[in-house]
Amino acid sequence: MKTAVAGKLSWFGTLFVAGLIAYLLYLENTWLQVTRYQVVCPGLPQDFQGFRIALISDLHGNSFGDGQSLLASAIRKFEPDMIAIAGDLLDEREFTLAPAFSLIQAIKDLAPVYYVCGNHEVATRRLDMIQAQLEDSGVHVLRNQAVSIEKGESSITIAGLDDPLALDAPPGLRRAKLQEVISKITAGDPDAFTILLSHRPELVDVYAAGNVDLVLSGHAHGGLIRIPGIGGLVAPGQGLLPRYTAGVYRVNHTCMVVGRGLGNSGRFQLRVFNRPELVLITLTNSELQRP
Q: What range defines the domain where residue 25 resides?
């Protein structure tokens, strides 16, 4: 009898632990985390002091509340000057299109929205259609181009770079092609403070060589599984123990902010110690400013 009772208790204990692990993994993959950074950029014009950016990356068609209400609410409370979407708004899987455009409808009136494509939009082979729908919704789609925004008596440049998969160049020549594209899109005002939206953080050396002040990126999904005290375990384009997965990095004079992303791609449907992340950035040209 004791053996049977002990066996049942052991079985229930195993089920409880398995259920707890499943629940924790569910939270890790669905519970939104809002991360705030104050980013010091010495070249930022004084008129743009305190400029606020909401960074969205790698939604992959995920949903946060009815009509993306949780995401939109967090962005609304931040009162951003600009919303940046750094690629993979949707997934190459067909059913991710509707949640992506629900988000656009929820945020398009909160601040100007700027978007660059990621590898998944390119993989759908419907990038032109996606671009047209985004532009019809009022989104500024930046495809290897730049725009200028003014505030007071100053201006800054917002540039956007296509994912390398969309470039007309073989893999071995893509870095050189990217450098060429960056040089062209920043040539209009080479002395302007430049914010570059580009999906892939592992190319930061290319961005730094292109006279870019701030890069907004995603793609790495935070390293999928984050090891406490170490960081991400694996990331596309970077392999094991990747260097650029989340947070703020500096390469020469270029600062880069990498979001952990909000969704999971078709091949990788698991996050551990790596909740979906919305990044809220306040720019300053001095360490003494409050976020």
A: 1-30
Check whether residue 6 and residue 129 sit in a common domain. Answer: no
pLDDT in tens, 28-81: 777 899 999 999 999 999 999 999 999 999 999 999 999 999 999 999 999 999
Strand positions, DSSP E, the chain: 33-40, 52-56, 82-86, 113-116, 140-141, 145-151, 154-160, 193-197, 214-217, 226-227, 231-232, 234-235, 239-240, 247-251, 254-258, 277-284
Residue recorded with tokens 């890069």: 215
- Spell out the long-range contacts of 4-13 with Cβ–Cβ below 8 A and sequence spacing 24 or more: none
Quick one: average pLDDT of 260-273? 83
Distance (Å, rounded) from C-alpha 243 to C-alpha 237? 11
- pTM across the whole model: 0.91
